[in-house]
Amino acid sequence: MDDSSDSVLKYGISVPPHGDYGDPKRMADLAREAEEAGWDGFFLWDHLTFMRGYTGPIIDPWISLAAVACATERIRLGPMVTPLARRRPSKVARETVTLDHLSNGRLILGAGLGYPRDSEFEDFGEDGDERVRADKLDEALDIIVGLWSGEPFSYAGKYFTVRECTFQPRPVQQPRIPVWIGGYWPNRRPFRRAARWDGVLPGRLSLERRQAWTPTMIPTDVCREIAAFVASHRDSAGPYDFAIGGYTDGEASADAAKVSSYAAAGVTWWFENLHGFRGDLSETRRRIKLGPPRIT
């Protein structure tokens, strides 16, 4: 899988919108520091409450991304990922085009089912059923892209309806804003979905407890399996992105060895996971300023 602009591995920062990061001004500062340190992207999680029982600060990722866009000039940005099943696709279409213009064409739209189902969906009266959310996700993606076209568009789905209308302006990026799809491996449907779009951001699912986990890296052999599965379902030979989240320590040789093994497995973007698993905010800032774990 080749990167959307070249074959060189790119490096992003992955940040949650809560806890020490629950401040939009701080988020903009971190993004500016990341750009100055040579990172290629800055991506935010999209949560309403994060987990049941969590009472700390949480900020809206979309307003925060607008601040990030204004604080930076070069790095890519976007939600990784936004749960479209609890969003109005017409509103997301407006938000994404506006953000693409604000950032001069630097937005990447990450989309997925969302997690967890209870605190993010059911606690707000939304249907948490995975099949329902998956169907809503597919419909929402079709609508968003249709509205991005800038042409007359209508849609009649099971969950969403759009009477003929035309959204202007079109995105800066053409033919459209890149769409990456998140999903938990070894579930197959999210990765068949991802094959239809521009990139994939996998998590992994514990087969024993069927619970999502993030602190542990997805092994390279699993990355190869995912890359092969997505490639087998692609109907286009065009460029495609494969992003993976992980941890490095800022030690050049060891970090380069780690990320190079993932690049060899088909990964095109390395996301440095800078959140509560690493430590406090000062440790986050230290890691950002050390720069990305570039392959030498």
How would you explain this protein's 3D organization?
The protein is of the alpha/beta class. The protein has a single domain (10-290), classed as Alpha-Beta Barrel (TIM Barrel), CATH 3.20.20.30. Helix content is 35%, strand content 19%. The chain has helices spanning 24-36, 61-71, 89-102, 117-120, 130-148, 189-195, 220-232, 252-264, 281-290; strands at 10-15, 41-44, 76-79, 82-83, 109-112, 153-156, 161-165, 179-185, 199-205, 212-213, 241-246, 269-273. Strands 1, 2, 3, 4, 5, 8, 9, 10, 11 and 12 form a 10-stranded mixed beta sheet that branches. Strands 6-7 form a two-stranded antiparallel sheet. Helix 6 links the parallel strand 8 (179-185) and strand 9 (199-205). The relative contact order is 0.16.
Helix/strand/pairing category: alpha/beta
Count of DSSP H/I helices: 9
Strand content: 15-25%
- The succession of helices and strands, N to C, reads EHEHEEHEHHEEEHEEHEHEH
